[in-house]
Amino acid sequence: MEELNNNNEIVSPGLDTSSGSNQSDLPTGSRLTAKKRVVILAVLVLILLVVAMFVLSGDLGIDKNIGTTETKKTEQNTTSKENVEKITIEKTPVTPEEAAQAIASAVVEAPGANLITPDGRVVDYDGNEVKNDVLKSDPRAPQQTGSISLEQVPFATKLELSAAGFSPKEFKIKKGEPLTISLSGSNDSSHVFKFEDKSLSAIGINVRAGETRAVTFKAPEVAGSYKFFCDFPGHIERGEIGVMIVE
Ligand SMILES: [Cu+2]
């Protein structure tokens, strides 16, 4: 038994006092390794602390100034970038201000029609120049007025329209000049004033029987004869045609 015990002690150290000593050896070994680990960790922490101290001292010392200057530079960069952005953002609302100034000094030849700026442009109430060559339904097109009286359009080229045709049948305008045309329809029918040329497709006046309406637009830059007519069914056949002569 003893021999076996001894053998057991030697082979598998897990019994009796000797095995107890072995058990105590193992925890002491693990304790030692734990202590070693703690020591190594402490040393590592110390090294890290020392390194950190060096780095911090470097930051606080020589690198501090560079760091601050760099941050200052980046701050300046960001502020300059912000300024650029602000400038570009601020540039956008300048246009409405200029538009507002243009509108403030613009004149209206027919209430409800577009404005004429001092430099001869025809603009809407946002300051955008109207377009003669878009569809009449396009918001950029010159806007016709509501029903008005001829007394409201003293500067307009006044056209009357009936079954007998336009009166006058012809009028002249200087090229590129703004003008207002009023159309007074006869009591017998509605009428639809239109130009034949596609460059003036946006301009039109629709009147019900007996109404007067007007439109302000800029004459073409190209001299020539621009035919206009009444687009109401059957009216062109009965002679509702005329011509605008651009000189
Ligand atoms: Cu007509």
Explain the overall architecture.
The protein folds into two domains: 2-90, no CATH class; 107-246, Cupredoxins -  blue copper proteins (Immunoglobulin-like). 39% of the residues lie in helices and 23% in strands. The protein has four helices and twelve strands, in the order H-H-H-H-E-E-E-E-E-E-E-E-E-E-E-E. It has helices at 2-11, 16-60, 62-91, 94-104, and strands at 107-108, 115-116, 122-123, 157-162, 165-167, 170-173, 178-185, 191-195, 204-207, 212-218, 224-230, 241-246. The strands form three sheets. A five-stranded mixed β-sheet has the order 6-12-11-8-9, with no helix packed on it. The model is unreliable at 1-28 and 54-94 (pLDDT under 50). It binds copper (II) ion. Copper (II) ion binds at residues 161, 191, 230, 232, 235, 240.
Give a short summary of the structure.
With 247 residues, this protein is of the alpha+beta class. Helices cover 39% and strands 23% of the residues. The protein folds into two domains: 2-90, no CATH class; 107-246, Cupredoxins -  blue copper proteins (Immunoglobulin-like), CATH 2.60.40.420.
Topology:
Layout lengths: L1 H10 L4 H45 L1 H30 L2 H11 L2 E2 L6 E2 L5 E2 L33 E6 L2 E3 L2 E4 L4 E8 L5 E5 L8 E4 L4 E7 L5 E7 L10 E6 L1
Parallel strand pairs: 4-7, 6-12
Antiparallel strand pairs: 1-2, 2-3, 4-5, 7-10, 8-9, 8-11, 11-12
Helix pairs in contact: 2-3
Bound molecules: copper (II) ion.
The site of copper (II) ion has 6 residues, from loops.
